[in-house]
Amino acid sequence: MKLNVGDAHLHRTGCLFIVSGPSGAGKTSICTPALARLERLELSVSTTTRAPRGKEVDGVDYRFTSRENFDAMVERGEFAEWAEVHGNRYGTPRSGLDAALRSGRDVLLDIDVQGAAQIREAYPRAVSIFLLPPTREHIQRRLTGRGTDAPETVRRRLDAACAEIGQLPEYDFFIVNDELDEAIEAFLSIVRAERFRTSRFNPARLKTALKLFEDN
Ligand code: 5GP
């Protein structure tokens, strides 16, 4: 029998990654290329009560649903976490998440700080990453950029974003996105390192592997 580096991926439970950050932090610009470069990492598709925007596709970007149906799902305990963000509800379906982790697949959740707190409680081994823009103006520019919101709405969202940043110390890692390529590399490093943690390796399998090195 010979051990190889890939064994670490084959015989462990899945890693759960959380990414949070205000709009303007560049979550999509970091996560999309990172996901393309990482095998066996899937992005969880959240359920939301908000209306689809632009080219968003139901079942791909989000599962869009009514408030009534969302609340019924909450009642039935179907969410691993859920939260209200800017007047809409968002939740992570529990069944797909648990099935992926059980079968050793890694999952990335793009969720807000309230949801991240619930996941940390329920999944203590989850790894959380906070993405931060380099300046307050980055958030402001992003919020005004859509051009659809009234100034007081933008102001309210800017205040909310800055309040969210106050939760950063609760996260395991934070990355400042001032240089996109560096931020992507930092994100990849965190995911790759976590995958090699001894404590994630299947204990029975580890024992078998170590037998290779025992004295005969
Ligand atoms: P947007 O409506 O712009 O797509 O997302 C708004 C915010 O909701 C983002 O901060 C995003 O991370 C958060 N969000 C998206 N899906 C979920 C979810 O399933 N749970 C929680 N708690 N937040 C979510």
Low-pLDDT windows of residues: none
Largest beta-sheet details:
5 strands, parallel
Spatially, the strands of the biggest sheet line up as: 2-7-1-8-9
Strand portion, in percent? 15-25%
Question: Radius of gyration from the CA trace?
Answer: 19 Å
- Please count the helical segments: 9
**Oligomerization category of the chains in this entry:** single chain
Order of helices and strands: HEHEEEHEEHEHEHHEHH
- Which structural category do the helix and sheet elements fall into? alpha/beta
Shape: globular
* Quantity of strands, as a count: 9
Mean pLDDT: 92
List the bound ligands: guanosine-5'-monophosphate
Question: Which bin fits the share of residues in helices?
Answer: 40-55%
C-alpha termini separation: 15 Å
Please provide a brief summary of the model.
The chain has 9 helices and 9 strands. By secondary structure, the protein is of the alpha/beta class.
Give an account of the 3D structure.
The structure is a single chain. This protein has a 5-stranded parallel sheet, sandwiched between helices. It is globular and about 75 Å long. By secondary structure, it is α/β, with parallel strands linked by helices. β5 and β6 form a beta hairpin. The longest helix is centred in the last third of the chain and has 15 residues, at 151-165. α2 (27-37) crosses α8 (180-194) and α6 runs antiparallel to α7 (151-165). The protein starts with 6 loop residues before the first helix and ends in a 5-residue tail after the last helix. The mean pLDDT is 92. 43% of the residues lie in helices and 19% in strands. The protein binds guanosine-5'-monophosphate.
